[in-house]
Specification:
The complex is a heterodimer of chains A (377) and B (305). Chain A is built from eight helices and 20 strands. Chain A is of the alpha+beta class and 377 residues long. The radius of gyration of chain B is 26 Å and the shape is globular. Chain B is mainly alpha-helical and 305 residues long. The chains are: A alpha+beta (377), B mainly alpha (305).
């Protein structure tokens, strides 16, 4: 076994531990009056695949570049592996980065690119060559070592960028929208591969992306960011099913919002009255802040199911199909419900013929009250 | 056009054919370069052919003997005076290129990496010396380097020397100093252009992989700007070998270059064939030197990896 001083971890611990790898404390980055990042605090655990998700301009790349050392906080502190990063330049941080443009050195071939950071370490006895080959094998690039960067496809360039960073055995690998330049099919393949690679090497990965599916598919945890602030930090499932507010819910995919009146609020639950769904008792989100008597409920389009023929469900709403959109394996139905100000969007798989429901049909929809989540505005 | 006499359809066909001809890329290309091309052909290629022809002839006082001979080349290559002049010209031109590139690189680097929003202002400032004539710029170096010149008075005023130095003007160093200054802008521009093309993320990537500022410069920025360095070196080197005005004005006896000898053959000495042979020899040597420079810089670039 080659020695791995920077990434050593007990063999009995395949997933992430609870130890903090990156600690971000009240970090603000201002450009004049504009705050690219506003009082962000975050703990990323050792061995975790963590995603910073948000629309462009939300501050996710700024945060990543500050962890890498290419930018410095206006106030607040960042620590990596328990060591404060203040005053430590990018070239002496235990982090390595995969750039959005990959930044492959065009005057060097694949091997020389991967060996770039090792050259300075002056490794003895073929160690450099061994590590380069190991890294190339990890990203399935064996045999392409002599190719020039200009002779590589987008996917291959990305693998070189990955190998070049991994060969340094960093404590943290930072990935700045690494898949955004690839076409859809390759992107989906790389998502799986990246996740597999992260679990194999056990390094903490921090991924910046604006693609919610990418974040959901790969991450252990996600931080959703808007306008320089961190809106929610949670597991993909939690973020998708229990978004803290409408903004997060909207960004993570389709969501039907229903206005509600609060009837009763206690400890962990909330009872509300709605026009379409009647009285609903739901879990109260941790971050719920009561704003008068009004609340918003949300339900994902795929949590509404069409009831066929005489089938009945314990919880159902009736309405009329006003629009139908065909997407191959699924169909989107827009269903008007009496009493709701906005029609509901329903995603139905096509195995029972949802794609054949004519516009104007009266249908009934089944739902699970658990799927109706309360959220802040 | 004969087509008009034959009725409408043929006319249309001719027109169509003419349009097709005008729209074809090679024809457009030739049309675009033809004025410059003809100009170069008449004023550059033909005179060079005339010079090459003369170099194989012999001059008898006022008449030219047109029998083929290699005697001129024998003289040009074996006479110590011409050999020395050629060597000196090559030495001066190489030294000038080296100094110019070394001095121009930091300026180009500064403008490209730290010029910010004022890049075009900086480039504009660099062109200011060209607002005055080249002769005036050479003459001003005479004022600076001369016996009673600025440099001598300054050094004496500071008490560094007791009497004016004559070592400053009328020698090869004076030619080198003057030419280096004169060609600086021509070296800055190509280096600047190649530095502009260096993707800044590559420098960040080098830093991310552990390189400090100096290392990332030597391993990424410098090799990637090599094309600019090569053009700058060639742009300075090729014309300075044959420079005639500068050595004449500031070179004195020790600063005479090959072009001065060629001028003498075409002028006072009235030996056009020898002058022509010297010109052709110089051209060939410059070509070899330029080629060698490109190869050397490329080899250095490979070594830097």
């Amino acid at each position: 076994m080659p020695e791995q001083p920077r990434t050593e971890r007990p063999q009995s611990d395949p997933a992430q531990s609870d130890r903090a790898m990156i600690e971000i404390r009240n970090v603000t980055r201002s450009y004049g009056a504009f705050k690219a990042l506003d009082d962000a605090s975050l703990t990323i655990r050792e061995g975790e695949f963590f995603s910073l998700l948000g629309p462009s301009g939300c501050g996710k790349t700024t945060l990543l570049r500050m962890i890498a050392g290419f930018d410095n906080p206006t106030s607040g502190s960042i620590a990596v592996g328990g060591q404060p990063m203040e005053g430590i330049p990018a070239n002496r941080r235990p982090t390595n980065m995969v750039f959005q443009s990959y930044a492959i050195f065009p005057h060097l071939n694949v091997e020389q690119n991967v060996a770039y950071g090792l050259k300075r370490l002056k490794l003895q006895g073929g160690e450099e060559k061994r590590r380069v080959e190991e890294a190339l094998a990890q990203v399935s690039l064996i045999g392409l070592g002599k190719r020039l960067a200009t002779e590589l496809s987008g996917g291959q360039r990305q693998r070189v960028a990955l190998a070049r960073a991994l060969v340094m055995r960093p404590k943290v690998l930072l990935l700045d929208e690494p898949l955004s330049a690839l076409d859809k099919k390759l992107r989906e393949q790389m998502q799986v591969e990246l996740r597999r690679l992260q679990q194999a090497v056990g390094i903490t990965f921090v991924l910046v992306t604006h693609d919610q599916y990418e974040a959901l598919a790969m991450s252990d945890r996600i931080a959703v960011m808007f306008g320089g602030r961190i809106a929610q930090v949670a597991s993909p499932k939690e973020i998708y099913q229990r978004p803290v507010n409408r903004q997060v819910a909207d960004f993570l995919g389709g969501m039907n919002f229903v206005k509600a009146e609060i009837v009763e609020e206690n400890g962990a639950s909330l009872t509300v009255d709605t026009l379409g769904f009647g009285r609903v008792k739901t879990d109260k989100p941790k971050a719920f802040v009561r704003n008068g008597g009004a609340a918003t409920l949300g339900i994902r389009p795929e949590r509404l199911r069409v009831l066929w023929d005489n089938a009945t469900a314990k919880f159902e709403v009736a309405g009329t199909v006003v629009e139908r959109h065909y997407f191959g394996e699924i169909t989107h139905l827009i269903v008007e419900i009496p009493g709701l100000e906005k029609p509901l969007s329903v995603t139905e798989t096509n195995d029972f013929g949802a794609d054949d429901i004519p516009v104007g049909t009266s249908i009934r929809l089944a739902y699970d009250p658990e799927a109706l989540v309360a959220m802040g505005d | 056009m004969t087509a008009t006499a034959e009725g409408l359809p043929p006319l249309r066909m001719t027109r169509a054919r003419r349009n097709a001809l005008l729209q074809s890329e090679p024809v457009q290309g030739f049309a675009l370069i033809s004025p410059t091309f003809l100009y170069a052909l008449i004023l550059l290629v033909l005179p060079i052919l005339v010079v090459i022809a003369h170099s194989f002839w012999t001059q008898h006082y006022l008449t030219i003997d047109r029998t083929f001979t290699l005697e001129n080349y024998r003289i040009a290559l074996t006479e110590p005076i011409y050999r020395d002049l050629l060597w000196r010209s090559l030495y001066i031109s190489l030294t000038v290129s080296l100094f110019t590139v070394i001095l121009a690189y930091p300026i180009a680097y500064f403008i490209s990496f730290h010029g910010g929003r004022h890049k075009s202002l900086w480039l504009f400032l660099i062109t200011i010396p060209f607002w005055t004539s080249y002769l005036l710029r050479v003459m001003s170096w005479k004022v600076i380097l001369g016996y009673n010149g600025v440099l001598n008075s300054g050094l004496m005023g500071l008490g560094i020397i007791d009497e004016p130095s004559t070592a400053l003007l009328y020698n090869s160093s004076a030619v080198i100093i003057t030419l280096t200054h004169a060609w600086a802008a021509f070296a800055i521009l190509p280096i600047f252009v190649s530095l502009e093309k260096v993707d800044r993320t590559l420098v960040e990537a080098a830093t991310d992989l552990g390189d400090g500022p100096l290392r990332s410069f030597l391993r990424v920025t410098l090799p990637l700007s090599a094309p600019g360095v090569i053009s700058a070196a060639l742009i300075v080197m090729i014309p300075t070998v044959g420079d005639y005005v500068t050595p004449k004005l500031v070179g004195g006896k020790d600063g005479v270059m090959i072009a001065n000898a060629i001028q003498a053959q075409f002028g006072k000495a009235a030996n056009w064939p020898l002058g022509a042979a010297l010109s052709v020899t110089t051209m060939l040597v410059v070509t070899l030197m330029a080629g060698a420079t490109v190869l050397i810089i490329r080899a250095l670039q490979r070594l830097a990896r």
